[in-house]
Amino acid sequence: FLDVYDSMRRDSYPAVVQSLALAARSLPEPRPRELLQQLCSQVQGGARPHLAQLLAVRSLFSGSPLVLNRLQVDHVRALSQVLFLTPHLPAILLRHRLLSHILEIRHLDRALLRLGLGQLSEEELRAACYLRGLNSTHLGRAECGAWLEEWLRLSCELQASEASLLAHSMILLSLNYGRPSE
Fold first, then answer.
1. Quick one: which of 40, 87, 113, 134 could link to 129 by a disulfide (CB 3.0–4.6 Å)?
2. Cα of 170 vs its chain's centroid, Å
């Protein structure tokens, strides 16, 4: 069933990346706009972004058109489907629920970092990855651990105001995971 649910979630991944690429075009500052467009193109081309690339665009996700409460409704609906939230609500409720879930994951990430990944059983490790967007059913413990470690480094670096980047990172970090990074 996890594969079926992940397939449903992955159906919205291209729409999120496309919406992000379109939103990037309207950003006023040329250098961050180019970095984000390059990041989207890279992911759309099948590559996996580096953590440094995500952190380089973090300022765009707090206080610009990319903050959760300013995203287009279709963009928010697609992001909601990634978290298995119903997309059939008014926009204000969608945004509120999405932000609430992302911040809850962020709090869980901080607790998980304090606990340490070594304390997790393989099943708990897989569940943690799955919750954060990665289909871990066909990955080994080491792959899951490496991905989750990278996710935690990103998540614990971001502020609550950068929740939009964390939501998008669920797709950006997992879409091409298992393929070589460029």
1. 134
2. 2
For the chain, the residue count is 182
On whether residue 64 sits in a domain, the answer given is: yes
Q: How many whole angstroms separate alpha carbon 43 and alpha carbon 125?
A: 25
Buried residues in 131-162 as b, exposed as e (16+ CB within 10 A): bbbbbbeebeeeebbebbebbbebbeebeeeb
Please give the tally of structural domains in the chain.
1
| CA distance linking residue 115 with residue 23, whole number of Å | 37
Query: Residue 24 sits in which domain range?
Result: 1-175
Q: Per the domain annotation, does 12 fall within a domain?
A: yes
Q: What is the mean pLDDT of each run of 10 residues along the chain (182 residues)?
A: 77 92 89 93 94 94 87 93 88 94 97 94 94 89 95 95 96 80 44
What would the two tokens of residue 39 be? 């990041």
Q: What stretches of 26-90 show up as alpha helix (H) in DSSP?
A: 30-44, 51-56, 73-82
Residue 181 lies in a domain: no
Q: Which of 118, 110, 15 is nearest to 71 (CA)?
A: 15
pTM: 0.91
In 3D space, the residue among 59, 81, 67 whose CA is nearest the CA of residue 8 turns out to be: 81
182 assigned to some structural domain? no
Q: Which amino acid is at 162?
A: E
